[in-house]
Amino acid sequence: MFSKSTLRRTLLMGALGLMAAGCSAPSSNSNAATQTHDVSDTKASLNAFNDRFNEISAQHNVDGLISLYTPEALWIAPGERPTTGEEEPRKTFGFVANNKGFLSHTVDHLHISDDGTQAVMIGEAVIKVEAAGVDATGTYLFVLKRQGDNTWKIVTDMFHQHTK
Which of 90, 92, 108, 150 sees the fewest Cβ atoms within 10 Å? Predict the structure, then answer.
């Protein structure tokens, strides 16, 4: 029988594998002819997306943050069942905004699909809500999809808080 923490870790690793399966960084031996996008432009647009997320967050603009997600986005929070839609992200971002808190992300890893239409972004999340005694760091993972207008939308948001 698995312990609860072992089961959670196993499920998390499986979920990460499934989400990342369709997104991979071009290999060093990729044929340039098979690439349908400019990798440096794609990386720049993803970093700009993260900068925009941080700017909107600093403005405490809940609707602006929600606009960065697809309507059916998957939200995977620690200790909770995954949900879809905007209800849970709206609660989280609303809590931070209503308490004039701070939420920011770094971009530490980018994995881009060969055709440049999907990406996995992983980095550190910092959240501070002094009014509620929250001062935490953690890791986030976004699965993003390029939209027809050449912008990015989050289709999956998963995160956890570091305990050490």
Answer: 150
* Domain boundaries of the chain, sorted by first residue: 60-164
Q: What is the pLDDT of residues 82-103, one digit of tens each?
A: 999 999 999 999 999 999 999 9
pTM for this model (two decimals): 0.79
Summarize pLDDT for 101-152 with one digit per residue, the tens.
999 999 999 999 999 999 999 999 999 999 999 999 999 999 999 998 889 9
Q: What is the DSSP string of the chain?
A: ---HHHHHHHHHHHHHHHHHTT--PPPTT--GGG--S-HHHHHHHHHHHHHHHHHHHHTT-HHHHHTTEEEEEEEE-TTS--EESSHHHHHHHHHHHHTT-EEEE---EEEE-TTSSEEEEEEEEEEEEGGGTEEEEEEEEEEEEE-TTS-EEEEEEEEEE---
- Please enumerate in sequence order all residues whose Cβ is within 8 A of that of 149, keeping only pairs 6 or more positions apart, or say none: none
Burial class (CB in 10 A: 0-12, 13-18, 19+), 67: exposed
